[in-house]
Amino acid sequence: MADQHNHEHDHEHEEPQVTEVIGEVPDLSKAEARPITVVGNPVLHRECKDVTAFDAELSALIDDMFASMYAAEGVGLAANQIGVDLKVFVYDCPDDEGVRHIGHVVNPVLEEWPADRKRVLDDGQEGCLSVPTAYAELPRPGYAAVRGQDKDGNPVRVDGTGFFARCLQHETDHLYGFLYIDKLSKRDRKDALKQMAEGTPRYATVPNS
Ligand code: NI
């Protein structure tokens, strides 16, 4: 997921100060940032494969995903966004309560929530590294929880509120073949694609053939 969109000169929206950090950035000394796939690349539009091997290769992939996310100044990244057909995402994302969340989830599944909890909506803007330079308003549940595994295969559950809840939903959606623009109205989707066509990403992308 792309960082929160702040209009230049807009000083009304101040991000909360980070007062707590959950998780830590892995050692990225051997990691390599890879170019980002963009809307239209088939790897983004189908469900990724489940991870079955919890080995050094998976660990190296996660490190490369962190490096790629930081190079693109994102707050979340799914494996298919660097062209890898596996269910893994990484994140380094603030929530709305001053907590910075850093980590990864393998084989994530979003927990279903009762309808009354879904009513607490976060109606912020959303962007995606695979739809460079575009942003759109997209209401999402203001709380999300994901179950999955860590790189060693241990079960994990990650949850959060606000912008981080948005991130967890966005990244899990990626691994099932959905971009946030697939959840927009036809008009808003068209507008997002127009923003993308008119903008220039500040990071390397994989050209669509
Ligand atoms: Ni995205």
Straight-line distance between termini: 23 Å
Structural class: alpha+beta
Let me know the average pLDDT. Answer: 93
H/I helix tally: 4
Share in β-strands: 25-35%
Oligomeric state: single chain
CATH fold-type name: Peptide Deformylase
The total count of strands amounts to 12
Helix content: 10-25%
H/E element sequence = EEHEEEHEEEEEEHHE
CATH superfamily: Peptide deformylase
Q: Give the CA-based shape.
A: globular
In a few lines, what is going on in this structure?
The protein has 209 residues and is α+β, with helices and mostly antiparallel strands. The protein contains four helices and twelve strands, in the order E-E-H-E-E-E-H-E-E-E-E-E-E-H-H-E.
Explain how this protein is built.
- By secondary structure, this protein is an alpha+beta fold.
- The protein has a single domain (18-24, 32-194), classed as Peptide deformylase (Peptide Deformylase, Alpha-Beta Complex).
- Helices cover 22% and strands 28% of the residues.
- It has helices spanning 56-71, 115-118, 162-175, 186-198; strands spanning 20-22, 36-37, 76-78, 88-94, 99-110, 121-122, 125-128, 131-137, 140-141, 143-149, 155-161, 205-206.
- The strands form 4 sheets. Strands 1, 3, 4, 5, 10 and 11 form a 6-stranded mixed β-sheet that branches.
- The radius of gyration is 16 Å and the shape is globular.
- The model is unreliable at 8-12 (pLDDT under 50).
- Nickel (II) ion binds next to helix 3.
- Nickel (II) ion binds at residues 1, 128-130, 170, 174.
